[in-house]
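Person: Show me a sequence?

Helper:
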Amino acid sequence: MLLLKLAAQDLLDLNSRRRMVPHLAARWRHFRGADASLTERSAWAESLVSLANDLVAADRGNVEMIVECAATLDETDRPGDPRLIDVVLVGHHPQGRRLSVQLVELKRWSTVTRVERATAELVHVAGMDSKKHPALQLRDYYEAFTSSRGPLHGLDFECGGFAYLHNATEASVQALIDVDSPTGPYAHVYTNDRRERLLSDLRQHFTDEGGASAAEILLRSMGLRNTPLLDAMIWSRGDDTVFTLRGRQKVVADQILETASKILPDPRRPALVPDERRVIFLVTGGAGTGKSAIGLQIKAELEAQGRTVKYASGSRAFNGAVQEHVGYGDREFRETFTYFSSFVTPPDPPLDVLICDEAHRIRDRSTSRFWKPEQQGTQPQVDELLDASRLTVFFLDEGQSVRPNEVGTVSLIEDAARRREAHIARYGLREQFRCGGSDAYIRWVRAVLGVTDEAPEQWTPDGLMHVEVADNPEELERIIRTEALAGASARMVAGYCWPWTKPLGKDKRLEADVRIGDWHRPWNADSETFCENEAPPSKIWSVHENGLGQIGCVYTAQGLEWDWCGVIMGEDMVRRDGRWVFRRGKDRQGPEAGVKRVAVPGSFDPKVKAGSVDDEEFARLVRHAYHVLMTRASRATVLYSVDEETRDYLKEQVGEVQIHGLRPTWENLPQEARVPHLPRPRRGKRPRRNRKRPDAQGPDLRLF
């Protein structure tokens, strides 16, 4: 948990635009569930700015300031409020360039006296009740950071801390600095008349550059930077441990595993009287809250115990990427991933565990135009899923349903559980790990698109996620291609606002259907095999190097992520007179057989045509589709709308883009953040590693 991460000079720039305090207040409300007090807000406005000014004055403006920060994600599960450090300063130490961290308590106290003559641990602050010496708070923070479970464990670092009373003089707070005051590397106290000493010490603690690089190391150790899903799976394929879960993620996973151990038979010692109870876990959370991380981790651990487990999804893009990219050549691995529609005939005997990811995509019935009549589902799909296993785990986000026949909701699953008299356990995930861990960006997207009733506000750069608006499609493509060629993962996606031509002729040529002025590009290939110029089939478009030249849509992007994502908004959703207007398109015959062109601009998605959904449902699904597309990036989103008025609105909401060091191009990233993505494994089943003991520590991979 953190509220803001910016270099000192960027924080001052943000404050000059009067955006710092509103941003911090919004983040505070999200995490704490209540508005920040006026005292808290004024403290941010005064104390943070004072400290940032001092860093700049010391020629240390590149030192990163992490504001209102918990040491680890586990901190959020402590009884009561989590311990939040006012500021963590992060950079490199001048000697040896090891990691340098200073924990800071900001106090606006002007007069402090001793409460008891015998001790300096308790002091009286003018206008307040008795307070603990700030060094005692810093001692707790110091231990949380440097202990065997803290984020600095195993790193080469220097860590200290200090209290900064920028309104006080040394004489007015003598009780804090007397000879019998607490001591330690975290117990320094600076006042206004000791400012020169503070500036000198800041120069001794930090170099004048490298703050972003140091912050990247620390954020990874704190679990606030993710390992992309497919990279983590390739690395660990065949291992019991896939991800290191944090905070609420770990709580949910542990509860599922514990329940499985209670109700499922021991494969080595079958029970004389089998336990017939059925249990359903329902885990909700927004995009990037770690649902897939939990699902994939418990799948690996349950399989290691000898359980029969399937991982089902309603997303062809997700399953295709896992099966074709991660499981290339490993039939046993690939077959453990399946679809919701695969259980029309229940397995006999039932599976031990069925994990249903993206359960918001559950359909009303399991049907296909390619199936014979006797193969079609005859009962609700959710019932088929529940009949397939003893323990069923559903992960869902109702805000990501994008098709009219996607009926997966909390109430649907709860009703089905009651019909079977199954025990149901509900959990909610909140911490955000996609989009750079920026829940502020997620909220901004939802407000801008009108997914929520929250009034949109101009985007505030937070050092975690970047967003900008391109003036034309050529500029958007140039940015995406530049980042991809430099080493980042990057893709272009668009609203479904152009006809989609199947590959043409024997050579399977891709028609350039997405046409904006003189800029023409094809959709990703609607094919099961490679097409002309080695264009990949749609199921691996998201991960294959040749997928960069094609445009994806919500159906081929959902469930996946890239470092950079270019999002093209078509004319299915445009801004008019201060509100969103939604349009359906019409096509006309193109230049050759099988090719269509746009006659009336708007949506060309056959799943939301006029005969299948009404106008209100159409608007909801289009909003959700763009919400999915705009939350696929882990570092930066580039937006472009073909409609000028909509483009102007987006620019107004994004605001000024260029702030020093915040545009996370590959060349601007610190070396520690330039993590190459793993290639597709070679054909052939990868030998499984030795099984881990139940208490063994897995690889330090974190997802979302």
